[in-house]
Amino acid sequence: MADNDNIDTIGLSRRTLLAGLGAIGVASAGAGLGTTAYFNDTESFENNTLTAGQLDLLVDWQQTYDFGDGHQFVSAHPDHDGDGEQSIAADNDAGEIKYSDFPDDEDEDSNGANIPVLDCETIPPLSEADFGTDPVTGEEMETLVQFTDVKPGDSGEITFSLHLCDNPGYIWMQAGNVSDEGGAFTEPEDVAAGENAADLADAIDAKLWYDEDCDNVHDDAGPIDIMLTLDFSGSMLYDQYGGVVSTDPIQVDGQSYGETTKIDLVELGTRQFIDYLQAQNADVQVGVVYFDGEGSGENTPRTGILEPLTTNLSAVDTALSNLRQKLANVVSDAAPSTPFDNDGNPDPYSNADGIATGTYISEGLDDAQTELASNGRASAEKRNIVLSDGESFNGDGNTNYAPPASAAANARAASPAPATDVYTINVNGSASTLQAMAGPAGGSGGDPVFFNDINDPLNIPTVFGNLAAQTVAEKVIMEDTLANVLDALADGNGVPLDGNRATLYDELSDDPNDPDREAFRGDGVMHCVALSWELPFDVGNEIQGDTLRFDLGFYTEQARHNDGTGPDLPA
Q: What's 30-74 look like in SS3?
């Protein structure tokens, strides 16, 4: 079908909109937001209900206002008890209730994050959403965001969590139903002239950004020491053990391969990670550790330092080049085997019967922790990013088995020092093992914020891109008056969002189909975008009595058969 034949404009009431749009195409957190749904061969419109076979965008959010006494909850989705704070009643015999972990000075473990366990299986439909109660008037809010009596110094924020399920897709953020109305006359001349201008949106300062850790706060950058701890086992490369992802060719920094393997995607993702840190002049040291199993007759696992911690990111990039050959060198049965001896066969279709066996995640993590202790900076946050596609087990030799969860717990608890954030990436391996390892320095394991579960290895570069974005100051899309931000969100298809923030894409000036704008992968991974606002103390009384209301929403279209330009809108 031609693209122009797939465009329908649908006007829906608030409840019909909320009932239908949580499942497909457009997910709107707003009342009656005018939408243009871009239909393709997997979507249909029947009996005022939008349904989808393979494109599913789910949205949750937390909104707060601060009227001078700290943030108070306004609205959230889901919100099982209607108190304005994001919450969900767990489906278990204990009747456990989970709430958002909003910043709390009396709770040292509070990190401000929205509920991280929400996913494609647990987010309720938007038909159950409630826009909350206006904290000034006490009346039900007609739009998602509304200001009826804003005073200088007041502020607020809303963070949306986006989950694109099933197929990959492009996403735009939109605004609609903007109503900015003038209030009381403040000057005799205004009364005489009959003027009553709406000044509130122009007076409010606003910031739109990617809230990478979904904690409702824009995070600046600080010094960080990072170890990349990478699985160099044979299943990352050799087709014999599931290392070949597809027969599609791949190019990694000028090196072309006729097929795509897991280690190719790791190289692409990690080098993109390094490129982004360089481009952002990040205050980082980065090092690389590898881990494998052991060869026949060996009693020690094959792990080691591929690149020590260094501020020379070009050296790290070089160390991460040609990982096929380096992995092949490590798993070669010729002992001693190192990444640099060139004694391995990097052909993924070669006979790999004699390669090393086992996957020593724990020992690799210990090597990384030792490097952080030896060469880390006292003032820097410590971070270890661990990627594996397999179970951790002993192999054929006699080395002592160390449970990965225990090694990770020691790293988080600074036993030995330093205390380290442990991020884990599971690529169709042992999800339970890698999730148990994940968590913040000083915290417990099993933290979903620090765990990335990848069903499709093609998502590896995107995950590294998102982790890179969490290493520097969170990317600001636009910082301007609220009026100008809403104008950008309401213009055309809205503001095109980037599924991989490590690519250098400008949402306001670059074309929506720019190669650096990537689709959001359809695996349900949580991505957050936030809008904050504040009315400056020096604003004049021209805003007295002004009101402002608006809705926010998200439009998505499948990456398949589309290039990111979005639908052609009528002139």
A: CCCCCEEEECCCCEEEECCEEEECCEEEEEEEEEEEECCCCEEEE
Which domain CATH number covers 303? Answer: 3.40.50.410
Report the pLDDT value the prediction gives residue 394, as an integer from 0 to 100. Answer: 45
Name the domain count of the chain: 2
Q: How confident is the model at residue 199 (pLDDT cuts 50, 70, 90)?
A: confident
Across all residues in the chain, what is the average pLDDT?
82
pTM over 0.85: no
Please list the helix, strand and coil fractions of the chain in percent, rounded to the nearest 5, in that order: 20, 30, 50
Of 356, 360, 367, 232, residue with least CA distance to 298: 356
Written as one string, the DSSP assignment of 245-299 is EESS-EEETTEEESSEEHHHHHHHHHHHHHHHHHHTT--EEEEEEEE--B-TT--
Q: Are residues 379 and 445 in the same domain?
A: yes
Residue type at position 175:
A
Within a domain: 66: yes
3-state secondary structure of 16: helix
Residues 241 and 380 in one domain: yes
**Percent of the chain with pLDDT strictly greater than 70:** 81
The domain boundary residue, chosen from 435, 453, 470: 470
| Average confidence (pLDDT) over 367-381 | 96
Verify cis geometry, omega within 30 degrees of 0, for the bond prior to 496.
no
Specify the pLDDT at position 481: 97
- The boundaries of the domain holding residue 309 are 224-470
